Amino acid sequence: MAPPELDFDSCYRAVSARDARFDGRFYTAVKTTRIYCRPICPARTPSARNVRFYRHAASAEAAGFRPCKRCRPELSPGDPGWDLRGDLIGRALRLIDDGAADERGVAGLARRLHITERHLHRLFVAELGAGPLAVVRTRRLLLAKQLLTETGLPVTEVAFAAGFGSVRQFNATMRETYGFTPSELRATAGRRADESVAGPATLRLRLHRREPYDVEGVFAFLTSRAIPGLETADLNSYARAVPGGTITLTPRRDHIALDVAVADTRQLARVVARCRRLLDLDADPEAISGVLGRTSLGPLVSARPGLRVPGTFDGFELAVRAVVGQQISVAGARTLLGRIVARAAAPGGLFPTPEHLLETDLTGLGLTNRRIDTLKRLATVLVEERVDLDGGQDPAEAVAGLLEVPGIGPWTTGYIALRALRDPDAWPVGDLGLKRSMSALGIPDEHIERWRPWRAYAALHLWSSS
C-alpha cells in the first residue's frame, strides 16, 4: 500500500501515463525486481499488485529497494512540497541537502533546529517513513551515483564529495544498499575514472528542473542584478565565485548544466543544493498558475507560465543586497554592492562574510552612515546566531529577528523572505515597482490578498511586466 499521504490510484495513473508533473513527488517501488523508479521511467509499467509508492527515495531504500539505472532517481527534481515548507521537516531536509549533517552529524543538525535528536527522528519517521540518518545516507548515495555516472572524478574523490568518511565506508554502503560497488556502477555507465583530476578541476553535472521553466526570465533577473567582481551573467549563462572555486550555470533544452570547479570536493553537495535554490528549479508551476491564472494576473501568467522566483547562493549576501537596495534603483544598488565587494571581498573573491563585513570600513563608498550602521547591525545578529538566513530557522522567526535591526522594515524583510527564506507567499510591502506595475495594469491593492499563497510569484510576474 501507499503511505497515508499518497493515494495509490492517483499514483498508479501518473506512472501509467509517465506524467512528468509528478516527477520528484513520489517513487514507484517494484516488489518483483526490488527496484524503485521515477514516475516517468520509460520501462514497462508494472502490474498494480507488484508496486508500492514512497514519498521519499530514502523510504524506498530503507524498505530494501535500489534505484533504477534507466530513469536515475538521482536526477529527479525536488518535491515542491518539501521545498516550500517552512516547518521543521522542510527546514531539516534543506539543511541535509546543504550538507549540514555531513559537517555536524544528525545530532548537530538537530541542535541547529533547536530540537532533540530523538524528536527529529520521530518527525522524520512519521512524515517520510525513514529516519534522518537514512535520508542523509540516501542523499550521499544518489549524489555519488550521479558523480560516478556523469564525471570522471576518481572513486576516492567521489566518496568524499558525497559526504562519506572513507572509501571503505563508501564501498561497503553502496554494495550493501545497491548490490554493486562504485567501480562496477562506473563500468556499467561506460565512464572511466580520470585519475589526473586533482585540485579545482571543472566537473559538469546536470540539474534537472520541473517544466515549464522560464529560462529567459530567471537569467534576465540575475543578469540585471549581477554584482561586479562577484558575478558575470547574461541570458545564456551565470557564473560566480563560491567557497573554494567557481561555478557556471548554463541553460540546456531540458536541464541546467552546472560546471563547478572547487578545490575541496566536499563542497559539491552544498553547491548543487544552493544552485537549485538560486534557480528555483523545484517549484510547482502548475500549482502556481492554477491559483494566479484565475486572478487579475491571468494574462501575465499565460505569457510566462514557467516563471520562477530566483533565490540566492548565500542568505547574508541577499540580506545585504536588500538593505543596500532600499529606495534606490537596481542599477544603483548593483554599483554600491560592487564597491562593497571590491573593498571587503573575502579570500577568493567571495562576498564578505558577516565577520568580514564587521571588520571593514564602509565609509567613502556612497553609503549613508545610517545604511552602514544597518549593515553592521545586520552582520552582528548573524554572527551572534540570533538570525539564520540559510535554512535553519522558521521564516517567521527570522523575519521577526530582522525587524529588530534598526533600518530594516517590512519591504526589506519581504524581499529577504522572498529570495533567501524561500517563502512563496512573501510580499515586499511598499515596493515602488510593484505599485507602478499594478497601477499600469489597473489592479487594485485589495487583489494582493487574492494571490495567496503565491504572492512571491505574483511579485515576479509584476516586476517582469514592467
Automatic annotation (TrEMBL):
Recorded GO CC terms: cytoplasm; protein-DNA complex
UniProt-listed InterPro entries: Ada-like_dom_sf (IPR035451), Ada_DNA_repair_Zn-bd (IPR004026), AlkA_N (IPR010316), AlkA_N_sf (IPR037046), Alkylbase_DNA_Glycosylase/TA (IPR051912), DNA_glycosylase (IPR011257), HhH-GPD_domain (IPR003265), HhH_base_excis_C (IPR023170)
Gene3D superfamilies: DNA Methylphosphotriester Repair Domain, DNA-3-methyladenine glycosylase AlkA, N-terminal domain, Helix-hairpin-Helix base-excision DNA repair enzymes (C-terminal), Homeodomain-like, Hypothetical protein, domain 2
Gene Ontology biological process terms, A to Z: base-excision repair, AP site formation; DNA alkylation repair; methylation
EC number: 3.2.2.21
Keywords carried by this UniProt record: Activator, DNA damage, DNA repair, DNA-binding, Metal-binding, Methyltransferase, Transcription, Transcription regulation, Transferase, Zinc
Residue intervals of the HTH araC/xylS-type domain: 90-188
Catalytic reaction annotation: Hydrolysis of alkylated DNA, releasing 3-methyladenine, 3-methylguanine, 7-methylguanine and 7-methyladenine
Protein name, entry field: DNA-3-methyladenine glycosylase II
Species for this entry: Nonomuraea jiangxiensis
